[in-house]
Amino acid sequence: MAAARARVTHLLRLLQSAACQCPTHSHTYSQAPGLSPSGKTTDYAFEMAVSNIRYGAGVTKEVGMDLQNMGAKNVCLMTDKNLSQLPPVRAVVDSLVKHGITFRVYDAVRVEPTDPSFMDAIEFARKGAFDAYVAVGGGSAMDTCKAANLYACSPRAELLDYVNAPIGKGRPVTVPLRPLVAVPTTSGTGSETTGVAIFDYESLKVKTGIASRAIKPTLGLVDPLHTLHLPGQVVANSGFDVLCHALESYTALPYHMRSPCPANPIARPAYQGSNPISDIWAVHALRIVAKYLKRAVRNPDDLEARSHMHLASAFAGIGFGNAGVHLCHGMSYPISGLVKTYKAKDYNVDHPLVPHGLSVVLTSPAVFTFTAQMFPERHLEAAEILGADTRTTKLRDAGPVLADTLRGLLLDLKVDDGLAAIGYSRADIPALVKGTLPQERVTKLAPRPQSEEDLSALFEASMKLY
Ligand SMILES: NC(=O)c1ccc[n+]([C@@H]2O[C@H](COP(=O)([O-])OP(=O)(O)OC[C@H]3O[C@@H](n4cnc5c(N)ncnc54)[C@H](O)[C@@H]3O)[C@@H](O)[C@H]2O)c1
Ligand SMILES: [Fe+2]
């Protein structure tokens, strides 16, 4: 059986490498259904959950009308302290006032939320009896607002009920939620498009989250004008998040190789593996990152570059929201959770913080070197999109070539030199590995399975990059 499967996989690879090399047919998108080498225990279907996005410079001014159209009478606006003083929140408040919407502001969102910070927002939402929500901010504000909406609509639920197993109970969401309009102000998480809400579970010192299509925002208002206020470091780190969403979802295990096959469609995970539709979003996002990320970081007034990155974040979000991410994200959760004293510049916070995008990208050269043994064509295609000259590269070198391309990008943008530069040493590796093990929801989507020794080696290889 295993031998037969290996043979089919081998044949499929041969087929792929023998494919037409013209621009129309030379892509390496996921195999269409029917070519699956999987046995009966793996999935046979994938589902594309659509995200509602409205994009335009200044589109935030429409939020008051949207809430009016939804019949909202008592709205909760969630944001963080820093943003509450900045133009994006002002634009939302102006629109709500102009259209006569009654609202209350919750501005205590924690940058990189935790279980206590989620609970605080949930209490506010439960007491407020709101009939609609507006989240203004980056992933921290949008994720907090999704959780507040979910638990306010499920008043007896405890936090862990909906949190991903094995940390939580992973209960499916069956209660109807209130409308939520998300106004992203960073160009990174794509949270305006996803059914995911991430927080740091303090007692375990790892990040985990809630993943359900039911918590996806009703509407994302993607307004590039908000990016003009973003500090360079936030543009860089949130851009690395886009980069890794695209790379990981494109190289994830294909949906038809993921198991188990759910007995009921409600149990089919949103993170279901790479699939032909997510691939398109991921590759497109990668092309935008390649073209605009450096410009967006270096020049705050480059509205063209920042606008494209803002949209890239949504593109990648739609891709990974329906495919998933894998090792960079799985390993990033303990990197953020175990932070000691590192405080990222430009984040305006009073607690140690490794920003999400940084925690994800620092392991990317090691991760893609490791995963390229599977689907090397995709790794090579990604390297080429990111600027590598791959005309004479052999497939077996796909991993190192992609890793070098990523290192070059990070060096160019003066990113910290690996995990050692943000306060970790070899002595921390066992704890980092221990924190990665419960992240099965994403680590199982890596194209290659990993042992604890593999994870140790990946952390070790990520201590220094240059
Ligand atoms: N839900 C998802 O699908 C998803 C995906 C990836 C990451 N995440 C989570 O999102 C969080 C990170 O979110 P993020 O990277 O968007 O950053 P963030 O929300 O944590 O914000 C980072 C900093 O930028 C500031 N800021 C945001 N927008 C600004 C603007 N326009 N002008 C000036 N300052 C601004 C904030 O006040 C904050 O200080 C993490 O908790 C991460 O795990 C969620
Ligand atoms: Fe992310």
Set out the fold topology:
Blueprint: H1 2-17, E1 53-55, H2 63-69, E2 75-80, H3 81-84, H4 87-98, E3 103-109, H5 115-128, E4 132-137, H6 139-152, H7 159-162, E5 180-184, E6 196-201, E7 206-211, E8 219-222, H8 232-251, H9 276-298, H10 303-321, H11 327-337, H12 356-361, H13 364-371, H14 376-385, H15 398-412, H16 429-436, H17 440-443, H18 452-461
Parallel strand pairs: 1-8, 2-3, 2-4, 4-5, 5-8
Antiparallel strand pairs: 6-7
Bound molecules: nicotinamide-adenine-dinucleotide (NAD) and fe (ii) ion.
Describe, in plain words, how this protein is organized in 3D.
The protein is α/β, with parallel strands linked by helices. It has two domains: 2-47 and 232-461, Dehydroquinate synthase-like - alpha domain (Dehydroquinate synthase-like, alpha domain); 58-222, Rossmann fold, CATH 3.40.50. Helices cover 44% and strands 9% of the residues. The strands form two sheets. It has a six-stranded parallel β-sheet with strand order 1-8-5-4-2-3, with helices on both faces. Strands 6-7 form a two-stranded antiparallel sheet. Helix 5 crosses helix 6 and helix 14 runs parallel beside helix 15 (398-412). It is globular and about 60 Å long. The termini are far apart. Nicotinamide-adenine-dinucleotide binds at residues 80, 82-83, 86, 88, 111-113, 137-141, 143, 185-186, 188-191, 194, 196-198, 207, 226, 229-230, 234, 238, 241, 347-348, 356-357.
